[in-house]
Design goal:
Blueprint lengths: L4 H6 L2 H8 L3 E2 L12 H4 E2 L7 H17 L3 H15 L10 H28 L2 H6 L2 E5 L9 H6 L3 E3 L4 H5 L13 E5 L27 H17 L2 H16 L4 H8 L4 H8 L8 E5 L2 H8 L9 E4 L1 H11 L3 H4 L7 H9 L6 E9 L5 E9 L2 E9 L3 E11 L1
Parallel strand pairs: 1-2, 7-11
Antiparallel strand pairs: 3-4, 3-5, 6-7, 8-9, 9-10, 10-11
Helix pairs in contact: 2-6, 2-10, 4-5, 5-6, 6-10, 11-12, 13-15
Length: about 400
């Protein structure tokens, strides 16, 4: 199986997990009969009241979410289901335009809702929040008749814990059906960006249109982590091969693959035996140029060893080494990137304190940015007593 751009954009693990939480089949007569947190645990289609009808409709929507099915495929399943169950009188029935509109609403509302909840769970990942604690509203720019308030919010940057996001995390479905807006995580607001929520936003608040509650986020995260733990080695290798094939199709992909061959023995040993903890392995000494730059930050790194930590290495590869990175506009991290990270420390683009600047036990952390053969690498390094180890890292095209 090859990973296509269309599939990669439509489906990711947290989105699948978010849809999996919506197990309660809710019979409704109107679109607004389901409110607030019911949207994250329940599945409903306005006018559909019978449990067996709802179950089949949920399965059809699930194919779109899990397999990245197209709206054309969903429409074929939808018409087969309503005919089989004898569902008559549904809004839009009887005209070509009406049926196209209604099936599009059902398809987009359900796929967008699971995308929104899954995306929120992704952005709430502690690794991402440590270096990108702000969220920016991005208007889709695709609507023929865009909502004025959504256009006004384009570029607005608020902290991830601002109350605004609890009821306005996009895409806002409901109540703004058809909303295609999204959020991106950033380190700090851009100069001139709006940094306060719009006046009167509380009056437009709809809990069902915002962020999922904490218990839903926890269930999404547990679902994904459990799935990763159960992934057999042969499937993990096949999954890696899919990523490689996808990279080949991208500009400069072959060159990226060339760099990822010959992975470090430490990383491969950690992957081969996750429970057998590998001792920290030194890969050299901190370059003098890098030590001078961290010293200006009040962090002493001179003479320390560059090393890899077993648990941190697995954490990086699990979080940033899969095809899920492509959905974030990033490139999956590979074993060879750990070597490239250490080799490039003497010529980094930027060095600054991480956010937060220390781990829970008080160990200093620094954030670094470097460019390697057209790829920007960003990492958080933990400065221990004798060693420096990568805490997290990711890549993107420059």
């Amino acid at each position: 199986m090859r990973v296509t751009i269309g599939t990669a954009r439509q489906v990711f693990e947290e989105q699948i997990a978010a849809f999996a939480q919506r197990l309660n089949l809710v019979g409704t007569r109107r679109f607004d009969d389901i409110r607030a947190q019911e949207h994250f645990r329940g599945f409903a289609v306005a006018g559909a009241m019978k449990a067996d009808l709802l179950a089949d409709l949920r399965e059809a929507v699930g194919k779109a979410v899990v397999d990245g099915g197209t709206i054309q495929e969903f429409r074929r399943d939808f018409f087969d289901i309503v005919e089989r169950h004898g569902w008559r009188g549904w809004t839009g029935e009887g005209t070509r335009l009406g049926e196209a509109w209604r099936t599009r609403v059902i398809y987009r509302a359900n796929t967008s809702k699971s995308y929104s909840a899954g995306r929120y769970a992704q952005l709430k990942d502690p690794d991402i929040l440590a270096v990108r604690p702000y969220w920016t509203w991005v208007h889709s720019g695709l609507a023929k008749d865009p909502r004025p308030e959504h256009l006004e919010w384009h570029g607005m940057t608020l902290r991830h814990d601002d109350p605004f996001w609890q009821t306005h995390f996009p895409p806002r479905i409901p109540p703004d059906y058809g909303c295609g807006c999204r959020v991106v995580a950033v380190r700090t607001p851009d100069d001139g960006a709006r940094t306060s929520a719009p006046e009167g936003w509380e009056a437009d608040a709809d809990p069902g249109a915002g962020a999922p509650p904490q218990d839903v986020v926890a269930d999404i995260r547990n679902f994904v982590e459990e799935k990763q733990r159960k992934l057999p080695p042969e499937l993990a290798r096949a999954y890696g091969a899919m990523v490689e094939q996808y990279l080949i199709d991208l500009p400069g992909g072959v060159e990226i693959l060339r760099q990822t061959r010959g992975a470090e023995a430490f990383v491969m040993a950690a992957l081969a035996s996750r429970d057998a903890k590998q001792p920290a392995r030194s890969l050299g000494i901190v370059p003098e140029a890098f030590a001078e730059r961290t010293e200006r930050l009040g962090v002493q790194t001179a003479g320390k060893s560059l090393a890899l930590d077993h648990d941190y290495t697995l954490h990086i590869l699990d979080r940033h080494g899969t095809a899920r990175e492509l959905l974030r506009g990033q490139i999956p991290v590979t074993a060879q990137d750990f070597v490239a990270l250490f080799e490039g420390l003497d010529n980094v683009v930027d060095v600054r304190p991480a956010v937060p600047a220390r781990s829970r036990n008080g160990t200093p952390r620094v954030f670094v940015v470097m460019e390697v053969d057209g790829v920007q690498m960003e990492a958080v390094l933990e400065v221990r007593r004798r060693t420096i180890v990568p805490f997290t890292m990711w890549k993107r095209r420059t």
